[in-house]
């Protein structure tokens, strides 16, 4: 395997490890809504990004074409703000089982769309990897469905359908972000991947500020100072580890790897999220969860092998 591929895969693993921490945040601050979590996380992401990018602001503005600012706003919306809101809504309305099954196909969606890019590996060479990815996603969804007892299935009317649509919307939103972001980084040679991540954070932070009045208006519950302090601590931690460090690693990887391999790297977020979940619940995985983990790892290994050059 070439050195650049090894470096890219390592960055993808690191991004997944940090992004997996995001799934612990709702457990730590259950009394707050997904909108409040979204605003908190991305508000501090914007603050961190502004502080880090301030010394280079003048030179960055000069090097970034005006159309890229609109592209930046769209990527911040699709990959951060809108994605997180749709994902949280899907969980609330349709349940974790349905949402995990839909989102589990994200690597497949990114890889299939990316296979049309110039220089991409043909789909026939990716077939084993895609098959294992699909089997892993099905196992995760099946396990989630098996964990629901009959008495808890009370959602009737339009809520499950709306939840499913939100899940599909979240899948489409992040797929669009992953593809658009990877293509932008390939074209935008004059801006480093780290600076692009900070600019994305700045745009996302601005969007979170616009959402603050809505979050305050919809907040009908009264929270203690301790609860607000806990929300602030969780928001700061997620913003620093997942948004600043995780996104920087992801952008570095996106510049090093072809889009078809970038799609497979998303699997590590699922892998680490499950591992953190097992640690939080102090239990071992079931046989379905273990099979899903094996499929995830094997899928990435097959995809890496498909991207090896003949002389590597």
| Number of beta strands | 0
Shape category: globular
- What proportion of the residues is helical, as a percent range? over 70%
User: In whole angstroms, how far apart are the ends?
Assistant: 5 Å
Class by SSE composition: mainly alpha
Strand content: under 5%
Write up this protein.
The protein is mainly α and 312 residues long. The chain has one domain. Helices cover 79% and strands 0% of the residues. The chain is built from 14 helices and no strands. It has helices at residues 3-19, 25-28, 34-53, 57-63, 66-94, 96-103, 106-114, 123-146, 159-187, 193-218, 225-256, 259-265, 267-281, 287-306. Helix 10 (193-218) packs antiparallel against helix 11. The radius of gyration is 19 Å and the shape is globular. The protein starts with a helix and ends in a 6-residue tail after the last helix.
């Amino acid at each position: 395997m070439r050195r650049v591929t090894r470096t890219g895969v390592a960055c993808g693993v690191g991004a997944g490890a940090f992004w997996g921490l995001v799934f612990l945040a709702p457990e730590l601050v259950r009394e707050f809504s997904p909108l409040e979590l979204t605003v908190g996380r991305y508000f501090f992401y914007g603050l961190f990004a502004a502080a880090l990018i301030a010394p280079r602001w003048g030179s960055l503005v000069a090097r970034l074409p005006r159309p890229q600012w609109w592209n930046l706003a769209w990527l911040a919306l699709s990959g951060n703000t809108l994605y997180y809101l749709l994902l949280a809504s899907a969980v609330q309305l349709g349940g974790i089982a349905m949402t995990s099954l839909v989102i589990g196909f994200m690597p497949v969606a990114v890889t299939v769309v990316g296979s049309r890019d110039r220089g991409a590996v043909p789909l026939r060479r990716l077939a084993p990897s895609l098959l294992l990815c699909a089997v892993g996603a099905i196992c995760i969804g099946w396990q989630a469905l098996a964990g629901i007892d009959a008495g808890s299935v009370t959602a009737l009317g339009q809520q499950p359908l709306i939840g499913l649509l939100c899940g599909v919307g979240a899948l489409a939103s992040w797929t669009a972000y992953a593809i658009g972001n990877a293509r932008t980084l390939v074209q935008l040679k004059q801006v480093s991947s780290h600076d692009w991540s900070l600019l994305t954070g700045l745009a996302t932070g601005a969007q979170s500020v616009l959402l603050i009045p809505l979050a305050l208006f919809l907040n009908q519950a009264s929270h203690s100072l301790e609860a607000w302090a806990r929300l602030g601590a969780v928001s700061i931690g997620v913003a620093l580890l997942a948004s600043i460090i995780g996104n920087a690693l992801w952008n570095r990887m996106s510049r090093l790897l072809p889009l078809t391999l970038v799609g497979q790297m998303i699997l590590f977020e699922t892998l680490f999220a499950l591992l953190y979940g097992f640690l939080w619940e102090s239990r071992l995985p079931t046989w379905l969860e273990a099979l899903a983990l094996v499929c995830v790892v094997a899928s990435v290994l097959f995809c890496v092998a498909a991207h090896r050059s003949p002389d590597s």
